[in-house]
Amino acid sequence: MKSSARWGWIVALVAGTGAALVLAFVLSFSSQGGGFYERHFVWLFWLNLAAAVLLTLVIAVVGLRLLLRLRRGKFGSRLLLKLAGIFAVVGLLPGLVIYTVSYQFVSRSIEAWFDVKVAGALDSGLALGKDTLAALANDLRGKALVAAERLAESPAVSPLVLERLRVQIGAGTAALLAANGQVLVSAGGDAGAGPPERPGALLLAQARAAGSASLVESLDEETLAADAEGPRVRALASVPRSSITLSAGDERFVMLVQPVPRALAANALAVQAAYSEYQQRALARDSLRQMYVGTLTLTLILAVFAAVLLAIVLGNQLAKPLLLLADGVRQVAAGDLTAKPVFASGDELGGLTRSFADMTSQVAEARGQVQRGMQQLEGARTRLQTILDTLTAGVIVFDREG
Questions:
Q1: Is 69 exposed, middle or buried (0-12, 13-18, 19+ CB in 10 A)?
Q2: Which DSSP helix (H) or strand (E) runs through 377?
Q3: What pLDDT band is residue 244 in, cutting at 50, 70 and 90?
Q4: pTM score of the predicted model
Q5: What does 287-341 look like in DSSP terms, one character per residue?
C-alpha cells in the first residue's frame, strides 16, 4: 500500500504540473497578446520537456516490470495488461479529441490575428494619424509665412506687436529669432515658463533653404504622460528683407509653436504602437504558430503519459484483489488450505477476499475434524484387533438363527 500511495503522489504531482501548463497556455490567449508567456516560452518549453521525460522514465520502468511479469508467466499478468490497455484507451481518446479541437482553435485564432481587414485598418489608421499631424504642421507653417510677411511690413517689432499678431493668427507661442536661432522677442505661452526653446539646427537650416519649415516635436508616450508642455508643432518662416530695418546681414525668422491636442496625440501613439506590434507579430507569424502548437503538443504528451501511468496504476489496484482471489482458488484446488491473505480495503473486492479467506478456514477446520474422526476410528479398529490377537480361547459369533 505504501508503494501504491507513492505512485499516487507521483501521478498527482505530474498531473498537477500538466494542468498548470494547460492553464498557462489558455491564459496566454485571454491576456493581452500573451506577452508574458511569449517572453518566458523557453522556460515553459523546458518545464514541459522535463515533465515529459520524467513521465517517460516512470512509464518505461512500469512497462518493463509488467513485461518481465508476463514473460515469467506470473499468474494474472494478462489480466493486468488488459486492464491497463483499457484505461489507457479511455484516457487517450478524449485527449486526442481535445487536442484536435484545440489545434483548430489555435490555428484559426492566429490566422484571425493577421486578417487582411485588420492589417488594412491599421494601415489606414496610421496614415490618417500621419496626415492629421502633417495637416497641423502645414497649417502652422502657413500661419508662420503670414506672420513673417506682416512683420516685414512693420517698422519695429515689439512684444506688443508680436502678441497682437499671435492672437490674430491663432498660435500658441510666437517669437522673432535671430539668424543663429536666438530668441529676440517672444509672446504667448505660459507666464512663468520664460522664452520658448530655440529650434534645432536642422529645422533652422530647412527654413533658411526653403523659406519655411515645420516639425512635430516630442510625440512620445513619456512626454504625453508627463505634466510638461507635451507634444507640439513648431514652424519657422524667414522674414522678407523688404523692411527698412533689415539689412543683408540681419536675417530674421518667425517661430510659431502650437501644442498638439492630447487626445489626438494619444490616439496617434496608440495606433502607432498597435501597428508596430502587429508588424512584429506578422514577421514572427510562423514562429508564433509553432510556439503555441508546440506547447499544445507537449501538453498533450503530458496528458497522454499521465493517462497511461494512471491506467497502469489503477489497473494494478483493480487487478490485485482479483489476482489474490484467483491465486487462492488455485491453491485450494491443489489442496492447500492454509490461511489466505486478505486485500485491505472496504469495498466489495476486499469483502470478497475476506469471505474467501473465511471459507478456506472453515474448509480447513472441517477437513481437520474429518481427519481426527478417521484417526479415532482407526485407533478403535487397532485396539479391537489387538484384543482379538491376544485372546487364548476362540470366539464364535452366532446370528439369531443359531
A1: middle
A2: helix 348-390
A3: very low
A4: 0.47
A5: HHHHHHHHHHHHHHHHHHHHHHHHHHHHHHHHHHHHHHHHHHHHHHHTT--SPPP
